[in-house]
Input
Amino acid sequence: MTQPAPTRASGIDPRGPRFGAAITSVLLVVATLLGLVELGAPGLGAAFWLTAVIAALFLWGVLSPATAPWGVLYRSAVRPRLSPPAELEDPRPPRFAQGVGLFVVGVGLILHVAGVPLALPIATALAFIAAFLNAAFAFCLGCQLYLLLQRAGLVGRAATPV
Output
């Protein structure tokens, strides 16, 4: 089933996901560093629990983006202080990107519990790279993946015939 393209009224301010990506980048770099410091330590350390919180935030962004904490903070505290965006963007690619982030850190959490020592810091480092690219350069890897899958007709509206 295809979804219609968003209208101006249903689009999102593209600065919102970048704001969330900046906060997420900080959390992910802390989780990565903690994961490296805690290598070989017994039990589930702070890196695991911080990554679990990050995964929960990604899940929240997928299931209910309108109530996700970074979006609410952006809309209530940051956006009112900015001029309106030049354009609004389709909310589906950033939402898909949240799912990609959830998948990456989720795999890291599962492999960490399974005993793979470097799984957690590698997963958080990969997610950090993606979040940082979005925050610093407005390049959303998950959004680009969504667009590739959309062109292939696998997500969103069907690919247009050439």
Confidence is low (pLDDT under 50) at residues 1-8.
